[in-house]
Amino acid sequence: MITKYFTKVSVKFDPFTASSRSARLFLSRIPPSMKGACKIDYKVLTANSPASEKPLVEVTFKDKHMMQADPETMNFKDLSVYFDSHSRQLAIKEAISD
Predict the structure, then answer these.
(1) N or C, where is the chain less crowded by C-beta within 10 Å?
(2) How many of the other CB atoms lie within 10 Å of CB of 30?
(3) How would you classify the pairing of strands 66-69 and 6-13?
(4) pTM for the complete prediction?
(5) Which of 58, 74, 48 shows the shortest CA–CA distance to 7?
(6) What value, to the nearest 5°, has the Cα angle with vertex 46 and ends 40 and 52?
(7) What percent of the chain has pLDDT over 90?
(8) Is it true that domain 6-97 has CATH number 3.90.400.10?
């Protein structure tokens, strides 16, 4: 997973559901060196959480592009491929400009 271009990561998940595994794995794959450059917000959903709050993984990139994904319908591999698609575009732009 290419995390070099992340500026903000927001994750909402219910830790007691099977679908939370992909959200937890996504958070764990952000390297400690990025935690200073990338703001990480997470919210643990509980039984008392409003029904309007759904599990969500949201990433803001350096070019201010924001992408959202549903961790209930995507496994970790799908999440990483989804977010890497934009990271690769940014890497190509960066390589061209150098």
Answers:
(1) C
(2) 16
(3) unpaired
(4) 0.89
(5) 58
(6) 85
(7) 79
(8) no
